[in-house]
Amino acid sequence: MIQQHRKAPSYSKDLDRDSDTNMMLLLFLFGLTLAAASPSDEREVKLQRGNCPMFWFSFNGRCYKYVSTRLTWADAELYCVSQRANLVSIHSLQEQNFVKNLIKNFDHAEGRTWIGLSDTQKEGGWMWSDGSAVNFGFWYAGEPNNDKGHEDCVHNNFGQKWNDRPCSDTYPSVCTYRMACR
After folding, report:
1. I need a surface site. Which of 13, 33, 39, 145 has the fewest CB within 10 A?
2. In this predicted model, what pLDDT tens digit does every residue of 77-88 receive, in sequence order?
3. In this structure, is residue 84 part of a structural domain?
């Protein structure tokens, strides 16, 4: 009688596939663990409404609103004034980071956004539209430069810093007001 040898079933391909899947799962979980354990960006500031109206966010006793409509600098200031506010004046790195995160919350590309700084009255005489003192700067290297003699208004997010531009350019903006004064 001839014996037929049956070949034992091969599970090696299944085991290889399972070990590949397990390795991918392990790497994924390891990546999640690293992400959770990594320190977050110190500049990240959580947006909170606090005592501010709807669509406004609170930071250090002031309310801030991102305005996505592209306006000239003067029209952006007029809009803010119509809201009993002004274009944002920035007085510290913490406030700069808050404004940056506010913009990022509504515009993930972090596009150029008007702030309340201008030298329209006198070239080089920078003033905030709310009349507060200019005691902080976050200029991009080589700025302000008054390119072609027509740059008198300032926007945020030019290489994550400030830049002077013609006031007739149109950008979104950020308005702010002091909570106690409203």
Report:
1. 39
2. 999 999 999 999
3. yes
